[in-house]
Amino acid sequence: MKTRLKRFSVLALVGLLLAMPLAAGAGDNEDDEDHDRARDLHEQGDIRSLSDILAVVRAEVPGDVVAIDLIRREDRWVYRFQVVTPDGRRRIVHVDGRAGSVMRDEGND
Q: pTM surpassing 0.85?
């Protein structure tokens, strides 16, 4: 009985180890789709380049950009930035993707 339990445990562990790379790469395809969508929107003139928008955000809120999302709000594309300011606070900054202007700046933490 102990031998069977050991074999089962070893097989289960091997199965988990083999499945880990598959699970880790599962989100990569989604990131690729986001980048492709952003590139297509920029080429079509629907949004400004990320470098242009980053310049706007850095001028508005100094600090380190820790996350960027491109989301659809009603009839426009909006860049959503999370910025950690030099004093350690987290700020959320929304920028109109086409106009390049700050829409809303939320001080959170």
A: no
